[in-house]
Amino acid sequence: MKDNGNSSRTIIVDADKCTGCKVCELVCSMKHYGEYNPKKSFIRVLMNKEAHVNIPVLEMNCDFCGTCAHWCPANALSIAKTGDAISMRRDSRIGAFPIPRA
Questions:
Q1: Per-residue pLDDT reduced to its tens digit, 68-89
Q2: Nearest CA-CA partner of 18 in 41, 62, 67, 52
Q3: At 67, is the pLDDT very low, low, confident or very high (cuts 50, 70, 90)?
Q4: Which domains does the chain show, CATH number per domain?
Q5: Among 31, 33, 50, 68, which is 20 to 30 Å from 42 by CA?
């Protein structure tokens, strides 16, 4: 995938806010493939029902366009500059962190 200027950005998740609705998966696939198909999404929401935790995870081909963050109804996702995300990770509380890549 070509560099579109988003390489210095990352997506931050607040796991406490993620409801597991998977809207991020749908809008990502629509943005990149023109269809609502979570299997084609660059973001996946992993759900652990026993621990009551939802964790969005990015595929390696994510270009950090921010569509998922823009459409997240729970405001669980946000865009940050990579340097800011590193500082945020050092100072963050448990539950808010840069999304890991699969």
A1: 999 999 999 998 887 666 666 5
A2: 52
A3: very high
A4: 9-98 (3.30.70.20)
A5: 50
